[in-house]
Amino acid sequence: MRYELYYWPTIQGRGEYVRLALEEADADYIDVARRSGGEARMMAMMTGRRLDTPPFAPPFLKAGNLVIAQVANILLYLGARHGLAPKAEAGRLWVHQLQLTLADFVVEIHDTHHPLGPTLYYEDQRPQARTRTGEFWKSRVPKFLGYFEDRIARHGPYLTGRRVTYADLSLFQIVEGLRYAFPHRMKRFERRTPRVLDLHARVAARPRIAAYVASERRIPFNTDGIFRHYPALDK
Description:
Glutathione S-transferase Yfyf (Class Pi), Chain A, domain 2; globular
């Protein structure tokens, strides 16, 4: 099956969590909106009447006759079909639960630079962004990364044991993004989560992930995505 991934063509964003899973699975897929006319196709699928269950927003994945939206939902589907989740139901649900927790963390990361909402520019909410970022690094990063550090300590070297899952790939992406957005703050924090960093290094060394990250298929981080580097917030 050739998958069709629909996501914005110029940012990693939430689509990157799906791309990493597809790449690790060596799946046959096309990144539709990065092709000529693809973004118009994506918008038509969301706003037209062709689908009985249209997606609210990208990313969404077309798999045969299925159109699946929401990152955790897409990964739940892919994980079961490409060996990126346990076969037993309890294990699949546990990885899904981890992914949903990561999704909560992603929202909080985004809100560091847009605490008043995405309809305003960052420049319109700088004081609030500084306050939100300070609280984020004081309490939220330790809580979230500390939770995953504990899971690895218990099960290791990955979140659920010796086999990589899509949740590990997503945690890798979060570490990558925090290093881009907050290089100084992240460098100071990293010594508190050595197991998370070891997991990040293990994922980075996986041949398909390493090849993808080094390729043109990997869109560079930029200040239009979830992870944005604003020097005023990285002190």
